Amino acid sequence: MTGPRYPALIASLPSTVPFVGPELQERARGMRFQARLGANENVFGPSPFAVAAMQDEAAEIWKYADPSHLDLKAALADHLRCTPQNILIGEGIDGLLGYLVRLLVGQGDAVVTSDGAYPTFNYHVTGFGGVLHKIPYTGDHEDLSALIAKAAEVDAKIVYLANPDNPMGTWHSGAAIAAALDTLPDGCVLALDEAYVEFAPEGTTPDLDAEDPRVLRFRTFSKAYGMAGARIGYVVGAAETIKAFDRIRNHFGMNRIALAGALAALGDTEWLNEVIRLTAEGRDGIARIAKDNGLTTLPSATNFVAVDCGRDGDFARAVLAGLIDQGVFVRMPFVAPQDRCIRISAGRPEDLEILAEALPKALLAARITLNP
Amino acid sequence: MTGPRYPALIASLPSTVPFVGPELQERARGMRFQARLGANENVFGPSPFAVAAMQDEAAEIWKYADPSHLDLKAALADHLRCTPQNILIGEGIDGLLGYLVRLLVGQGDAVVTSDGAYPTFNYHVTGFGGVLHKIPYTGDHEDLSALIAKAAEVDAKIVYLANPDNPMGTWHSGAAIAAALDTLPDGCVLALDEAYVEFAPEGTTPDLDAEDPRVLRFRTFSKAYGMAGARIGYVVGAAETIKAFDRIRNHFGMNRIALAGALAALGDTEWLNEVIRLTAEGRDGIARIAKDNGLTTLPSATNFVAVDCGRDGDFARAVLAGLIDQGVFVRMPFVAPQDRCIRISAGRPEDLEILAEALPKALLAARITLNP
C-alpha cells in the first residue's frame, strides 16, 4: 500500500503556514485572549443591517449561492462607478491573490514584492513555483519606484503593493501610484491590495479607469465592513482580465449568508462612517498608551498602529511575548528594521484599557530579560 | 498599456464554467423557478439547531475563523471514529477537489474518471494541466474495475469515483470498493466522492482504516445536512496526506458562521434521519410521477432520481427544456446513453405537485417537436 505521489514543485513546498490563528495560541496557553488586537479585525463589528440580513438568510442556506454573484457585483459596480464585468468576487483577498498567482505565474516566473509585506501573497507565489524578488522598505514605506525598477529588471509578471501598507500602516497617495503605473513595464500587472483603503485619507486610491489593464485592485469586506469571518473579497479590473479568472476559480465557492451580509453592509454608509470614526479614536488611544510608555507610533491609514518599541527585533518580540502572556493578542512585522515595531489593531476603549494595563509590564519584563 | 501575460497552460483553458446557476437562468427567463430541483440541494433544509447556531454567530463575523478548524474537526473525528489529523475541512467538495488536483497532478499527469461523471472534477484536472482518461458507465453504474484497469494502464495519479454516483444515483457496495482498492496500482489515489453517502443504504461506504493511504474520502454538509450555501466539505484520509494540503490550501478560507452551523448540524442526528426519510418519500414521489407518465426511474441511493425519458438525449433535452419553461429547475446527464435521463432532486410534496403538473406537458411538447 503506497500513498500519493507529489509533483516536484509540491514536494518542494514547506508545510509551514502563513499565520497561526489566535485560537491555536489560546489552546496552547490554556486560556482565552482578553483583547483580540492581532489580526486587524474590526472589533466594532459589522453593520446591524448586515447582521440582520445574515440572520434572515440562515434558513436559506440549503441553496447554493449564485455562482455569478450578480446582486453583489451590481451593487459594487454602482458603488465604484464601473460595470459588474469589472468585478470578481471571491473567498477573501487571500483566496483572490491565490487565483491571481495561479492565473499569471508559471514555474520560474518573477514576482516582486516588499521584504516584510503580506506573507500570504508570498505563500501563493512560492506555491505556484514563482520566484520572489523582495525590495526593502524605505522609511517604513513600501518603495514604489524600487519595486517597479526591480519588476523591469527581472521581467516580473506581478508587482504586489499594499496601499495602505500592512504591517506598517503607512501609505502612498493615489496620485503617486497612478504616476508609478506609467513606469510599470509592459506585461506586468500591479496587484494593488487596498484591504484597508476605507480607513485611509481621501485620495489614497488612484483615480483610474476600471478598464486599465495594468492594475488589479483587491478589496475586502473583512476590514472596514467588519466581516473578516465571512470571506468576501473582490477584485476590480479590466473586464477581460476579470473574465480570465473564470477559467480557474471555484465557481461555487461563496457562502450565501456572507453574500447577503455584504450586500447589506455595503448599503449602510452611516455605520461605515461610524466605524471609521471609532477606528480613528482607537488609533489615537494606542498612540496615547504608547506615548505614556515612552514609545512612538507610526502614522497609520489603516485600522492598526505600528508601535515602535525603540530597540531591535529581539526586544519587540519580547514585548510581544509579554503582551500575549497577559492575554493581549497582537502580531508584529517579520523583517528588520520593521520588526522593531509591534502591530496593534484599533480596539474599543475596553480593549485599550487591557492594553494600557499590560504594556508597561511587558516592556519592563523585556527590559529586564534583554538588558545586559 | 498592455495587460497581463498568461502562462501557456492558462492561455489554453476554455472560459466555460462547469455549471450555470439557476439564478442566471431565472434572469434570462425573466421569472423565478417555481420548483428548485436541479442542483440536488436539500429542500428540507438544515437542522433548526444549525439555523439557530448560524444566527447566533452572525454578530461574531468580525473575527476570522480558526484556520485549523479545531472544533469541527474534533466533532467529525468523533463522528467518524478517527483523529482530527485525518480530517481536512475546506470550501465544499468543489474546492477540496481543486486542492487535491493541485496537490497531485503535474502537467501531463494522467487522471481517470467516468465519462459523464462530475464535471467540476474534470474542470480542475484540465485547469492544472492533467490528462483525463474517461471510462464509460456500464449499466448506468461507474465501472469500478475498468476505472482501475485504466489507472494501471496510464499510470494515473488519481482515480475519481462518486459513490453513490452523480448524476445517475446508482451505487456500489462498500465491500466492492474495498476489494477494488486492493487492485489499485501503487502511487494512485482513489478520490472517493461520498457527497450523497448519508442517503445510501448501510454498507455503501467501505470499512477502511482512516490511515489507509490509498483513498481520500470527500464528504459535505451540502447535501444531507442541507447546507449547500455554506460551503463546507471535508476530506478523510491518512494524516500525512491530509497534512500535505496545508502546503497549498487557503488557510483562512472558511466562513465562521458556516463552521458554527456545521457543528450544530452534525449534532442533530434526529433531523438528519428525518431528512433521509423525507428524501426517500421525495424519491418515491418522483418515481410515481414518472410512472404516471409512462416513464421508468433508476434506483437511487442519493437525494435525486434519474428519470429515463425512454428515448435519446435530444428527446430528454427537449423534456428538460419543457420543464424549465414551466418553471421547474432540473438538470440532466451530459453524455450518452445516460443523457436519455433527466435528473430530478427529491422535493417536498409542493415541489412534486408542480413537477406532476409540468411533466406531461413537457413530454407532450417534446414528442410533438421531435416526432417525424
From TrEMBL, chains A, B:
Record GO terms (molecular function): histidinol-phosphate transaminase activity; pyridoxal phosphate binding
Pfam family membership, one: Aminotran_1_2
Ribosomal protein listed as a keyword: no
Source organism, top-level taxon: Bacteria
InterPro entries, per database record: Aminotrans_II_pyridoxalP_BS (IPR001917), Aminotransferase_I/II_large (IPR004839), HistidinolP_aminotransfase (IPR050106), PyrdxlP-dep_Trfase (IPR015424), PyrdxlP-dep_Trfase_major (IPR015421), PyrdxlP-dep_Trfase_small (IPR015422)
Pathway: Amino-acid biosynthesis
Cofactor(s) demanded: pyridoxal 5'-phosphate
Keyword Transferase set for record: yes
Keywords, alphabetical: Aminotransferase, Pyridoxal phosphate, Transferase
EC identifiers of the protein: 2.6.1.9
Domain Aminotransferase class I/classII large: 36-359
Family: Belongs to the class-II pyridoxal-phosphate-dependent aminotransferase family. Histidinol-phosphate aminotransferase subfamily.
NCBIfam families: PRK08153.1
Protein name per Swiss-Prot or TrEMBL: Histidinol-phosphate aminotransferase
